[in-house]
Prior knowledge:
homodimer; alpha/beta; Chorismate Mutase Domain, subunit A; Rossmann fold; 6-phosphogluconate dehydrogenase C-terminal fold; 3 domains; 15 helices
Amino acid sequence: MKKNAADEFVQVRKDIDQVDSELVDLIVRRQQLTDKVGTLKAELELPLYVPRREIELIEKIRLSAEQKGISPDLVEDIIRRIMRDSYLSQNKMRSQVVQPQSRKVVIIGGKGQLGSLFVELFNQSGYPVDIIDKGDWPQSDAIIKNASVVMVAVPIRVTNQVIEKLTNLNEHCLLVDITSIKELPLKAMLAAHKGPVIGLHPMFGPGINHLAKQTVVVCQGRGESHSQWFIQQLQTWGASLSFVDAKQHDHLMSIVQVLRHFSTVVYGYHLKEENIDLDKVLELSSPIYRLELIMVGRLFAQDAELYSDIIFSDQQNIPMVKRFLQRMIDLLEILETEDKQKFTNRFEEVSNWFGEHAEKFLHESNQMLAKANDVKR
Amino acid sequence: MKKNAADEFVQVRKDIDQVDSELVDLIVRRQQLTDKVGTLKAELELPLYVPRREIELIEKIRLSAEQKGISPDLVEDIIRRIMRDSYLSQNKMRSQVVQPQSRKVVIIGGKGQLGSLFVELFNQSGYPVDIIDKGDWPQSDAIIKNASVVMVAVPIRVTNQVIEKLTNLNEHCLLVDITSIKELPLKAMLAAHKGPVIGLHPMFGPGINHLAKQTVVVCQGRGESHSQWFIQQLQTWGASLSFVDAKQHDHLMSIVQVLRHFSTVVYGYHLKEENIDLDKVLELSSPIYRLELIMVGRLFAQDAELYSDIIFSDQQNIPMVKRFLQRMIDLLEILETEDKQKFTNRFEEVSNWFGEHAEKFLHESNQMLAKANDVKR
């Protein structure tokens, strides 16, 4: 009996390997087909990312999974993972444009991380692109002349200085910046240039190599009709645009960006000063602690100056950070007086304020955590 | 030309749907095969999770992807996602045991979230399981008599009280707790019971329904030879065990657990007091801010008392929280004096301290963030 089971065991494993090989073949075939779709979309001038098609496709495959008795979540996760790569691949091969012939693009700081992404995107789409780098200012007038759009993609600490120099763009030229704060650069652009102006905040890091499904915040400055083609181009690349007032943007970002970065630096500094054994922590960590730790540690693999720039970008953030600190002191006081009931009450007030979002976040993060556990060796 | 492209477009989409349908069929077949493996593993008394087989299988499929010209990361992600469900499915159908006939299991608090998971696991594996709930103390002596293991799975605030009652276990009975702090419960267990003792800290939340690849911290108390069968059973369920000294465990946990929970509560409280527009924040958020926000919000979908219990579990944590606070004040002072260079220096000191880990964390979190973007609608 045991002998037979052992033989069968070996055979079933071989069968699994065979299925896996067929799986790879099928993914290859799917990619060939989606690449074909990419070419046809370009030809038919259709956008790369079509939310409705994506939703329909997912619904269809979920239904099929249910009918065949397997988990719809499983097949949805798999198909979304495959789609991620098809967007990337489609994006690489297409050269889809809105009206490239007549548009010259100039990117100031086009050799930087985010600037070079836009250089690549415009190039792929057939626009003539010029870059202005640090040493190029003497020639800048010639480069900027006849530009349809000038994009400012320089570090936040020099954004305003650069914008102030841009006083002689032609009147139809669109002036755009991609700084992570919006009110001050927008004001500076409107002061320097009389033509169309918009402020962008691309909500992603330099790790991205296509715009499909990426959020880009758009703050309107002036001359919406003249920036329409540019907005369309972003959408054609697949970006999901979010229109918001510059002041509101900066207020929200002071919390999700400035305070978050600041307290992450504090937490990393604390770990260092406590001289925590990182390897041991990782060994013990549950997926959630691991995730929290990697979200802290990732900051420190990045440019110190970039984060300092963001944190120091606006002294108006200081009172908000102080309010945060005061709240921490208040809760610590509750901890010291051992008033657990009071602490629990505070907790529940926050739960009520989060409302339905809390449940949704729990569900979404559980999916992420399962993924984190998948990759564990 | 355009007409033909449009026709072709419709046809290619149909082809994609066909491939997707075949994909579902293939996943169904693979699950049937892995379920078969599960049965055979039980018959052959092999553990559910075999790291070497998993690594070999992944290497094979990565190689196959490379040869066929598609991304090895893509197929690895897919196969790991499928494997997650196979572990779950295999675990549900197997009833694999170490030596169940002779072992009676008693779980105090077996109706709680984590307690009931262990009840289910032991039941599935054929052990006779008894539960002691709040009202069962009058009968507890009869229930505990002849138990091979008594597991304490009650809320942290009553763990010690419960342990103190367990003075008349038989001398071979293994006493185990699953509290998230380890030094005090272990001390209490060693004082109450003269026989074998171990402390566990399962490093996962109640959302889990199998142990495959889940980390469980083990702190040895007394009588290792008598707890061997129990340790083996955990391994057979697929758990990844991490042996650590109780004191070291508590020290590390004071930072990754107590401080982390505490500052998350503060951050949630801050968001509420600032009355941030959550929907607007989500609309604007990059994957990383979204992830950070859901990691905060998820806490507030959970039991306020549970988190208060952990945070209040040990007054010795207060000095550590105060050191954290002081570090925040120090960095805030640098922010106020606008000494960006000093802040950048601090940042770089932390980067150096993280060393290679920072790069690894960046890479790992980028994978997670890509996943977060996949599910965006």
